Amino acid sequence: MNRTRPLLGLLALSALGASVLLARQTASLEPLLFDDFSSTVVGRFPHTWRWRRENDAGDEAKARKDGVDVFRYVVKSEGDNKYVNVRDEFRPGASVALFIQTEDLKWRLSERPILSWRWRIHEVPPGADERYTETNDTPAAVSVVYGTKFPFTPITIRWIWSSTLPVGAVAYRPGRGRAYNIVLGTGPDSGGEWVTVERNLVEDYVAIFGKRPPNQPKAITIQSDANRTPGGAAEADYDDFRALAAYSPGFPREPFTLLKQYMEGNR
């Protein structure tokens, strides 16, 4: 009697059972909260975040000392809910973004591949287009720095609300260290309503780069800017940044096709 085949079958079933158990354990992981702004005093800069402008970065105290205008990022409230509001108007000079470092928070994409947040768009800079330097303004953007490549160049994907690009477009402005943009919303505003976003960071990375991402993201960044659109302004609210093991029950997973014909900004 051939005992090899039953043994192989038993091993295969054991492996399958282990993988199912691991999947269930992963799916049962609690959400990892990055920030819901509940610990920041209303009217203040969100204290768990830091700011970055070109090659400079720091906290609220450094911004005050150096005269860096980061106080367009301010925590507001509606009822019991707090959120951060960002308003940027046209002004020459570099844009300011906020970031929160995630390296020390035990965030692993193998356990929690979904990044979730809410945003609400109030105003978009007219005619902005993220593919070109002269029109590179964005009403709202959430970025993840997945890692770096030589020499210390960040690998970044941004999920954006765009003034003009269609939903699904993958926009890229050529240059070292620049982010790939995935358009999740477009047009004048979000109708005054909060929009919940859940993105699978592994799937999006594979779709753009053709390989799996590093397992431990470095940072999350938010930014609304209008520094290149004369007479324009960008305003948005952000809230509830969390990493999830799986999509929320009932979350609408509509077909979402990445439109790569918008990849590079060639006029």
Average per-residue pLDDT, rounded, comes to 86
CATH topology (fold) name of the largest domain? Jelly Rolls
How are the strands of the biggest sheet laid out side by side? Answer: 3-2-6-13-8-9-11-10
Largest sheet: 8 strands, mixed
- The share of residues in helices is 10-25%
CATH architecture of the largest domain: Sandwich
Tell how many strands the DSSP assignment holds. 14
CATH class of the largest domain: Mainly Beta
The proportion of residues in beta strands is: 35-45%
- Which blocks of ≥5 consecutive residues have pLDDT under 50? 18-23
Return Rg in Å.
21 Å
Structural class: alpha+beta
First-residue to last-residue Cα separation? 72 Å
Q: What can be said about this structure in brief?
A:
The chain has 267 residues and is of the alpha+beta class. The chain has three helices and 14 strands. It folds into two domains: 30 residues; 231 residues, Jelly Rolls.
